[in-house]
Amino acid sequence: MERKWWKESVVYQIYPRSFKDSNGDGIGDIKGITQKLAHLQDLGIDVIWLSPVYKSPNDDNGYDINDYRDIMDEFGTMSDFDEMLEEAHKHNIKIMLDLVVNHTSDEHDWFFESRSAKDSPYRDYYIWRPGKEGKPPTNWGAAFGGSTWEYDPSTDEYYLHLFSKKQPDLNWENPDLRKEVYDMMVYWLDKGVDGFRMDVVNFISKDQRFLDGTMNGTPYGNGGPYYMNGPRIHEFMQEMNREVLSKYDTITVGEMPGVSSEEAKLYTGSARNELDMVFHFEHVDIGNGRFGKWTPGPWKLTDLKTIFSRWQVGLEEDGWNSLYWSNHDQPRAISRFGNDCEEYRVISGKMLATCLHMLKGTPYIYQGEEIGMTNVTFESIDEYRDIESLNVYRDYTESKHLTSQEIMHAIHERGRDNARTPVQWSKESNAGFTTGQPWIAVNPNYKVINADAAVEDKDSIYHYYKKLIKLRKENLNIVYGKYELLLADNEQIYAFTRSLNDEKLLIICNFSEEQALFKLPNDIKFSDKELLIANYEVNPDEEIAAFSLKPYEARVYQLQ
Q: Which tens digits make up the pLDDT trace of 192-204?
């Protein structure tokens, strides 16, 4: 058991645009974050992961950067950032920045120079290719719709953009480009930031053959096999570690669509000198249909247990898990995996928190999760702001692959703006987020679901999260204990144990709105038990060999 501070931490993600507006312009900002540090310290979190605050034209809400060493005007100034960083450290909270280096904005100086001429010294900072018989170099489809290639008439070549056409991909084959990135990382670490969450970092190494992808009844080919976990990815990650990360005491997590638990060992193994942990997407993809999340369907608890267990067991001896239900790209946890109806919202939210925080790994809380925020159902596509949802609505309705009703249903269930409606601080106008007009509408349920109400109610999700976080800090078994799945085939109950030395924890979670009969496997022996946390009133002396769980009930026992 190698103890590390980042293994024992709880991370809280802030999406600044939607967190807290300090100046009434309707957009969350850095001063707003500083104002709420006491709230986060009270919750008990250790690290803030800050979604991008760099200078950006905002085609993709800050994930299109045109200056890595300056702050977005809407968010404030560098002095605001420095003050926030200093205040966070005073509150014993570390800051992890979002590192977006698969691509930049097309308004970055590098790209202006790169597209100016084929012989520009910056040409190879990006990926340029000639067309094929008047068509793009490959048939790959971009994440936000359309082709991954954009034609540039001034030099008669195409540039690659895996996301928006305003997000050209950087060419990591170029050592000069890599040095620019490492120098920028050093700039922020020397400023005092504590680490990086790395955006789609397993996309940075492209297969240089640039082959067409297979077509799956969609308008474009799947290029994923040619840029996910590419040929030089581990070389690049180890170089980054050697040149930058190894010289600082950091926390690092790589966002990695399409990564497997076996590949994660290579990225996070203690002797690999790459990253601390990765974000995988397997569990948030369950229930995907023919067109992925845009044709959502039902999912089975056994599928979720299989995925979590594969990652828990796969990284048991080496590597480390990151644990999350939601983030700025995912729907709200309670709506996605629990039950957001009035009767079960709080109880299922507590159950989900119990399940996640009792797994082995570093837990991530997304802003608003701790007060039980839910998905939003805007009636018109015009109320949405997310480039992905807007493009998908256009593409699927124009191609007639889906009706407008079908795609709106999918956006309601799985769209990214579910996570991006403003944090609901109070029952006041605009949920206390802003005194102005919010950049995206507030979820209408803010008068019931808000931080003020949650802090005041001692039985709220907020206070339950505080208790979970406190338990984790007091019990090394929750952090480092061995995971073992129980009742693998049960479609209602997710039960598992955590074991460290002579200590054993028993975690039981009912994922259904029906009662569920729990039977303790015969091979689990104990002479005494202590109930550590539960989301219903429970008689601590109740026998646990067999008992009935209420809807969405969760219990954690310490067995001796």
A: 999 999 999 999 9
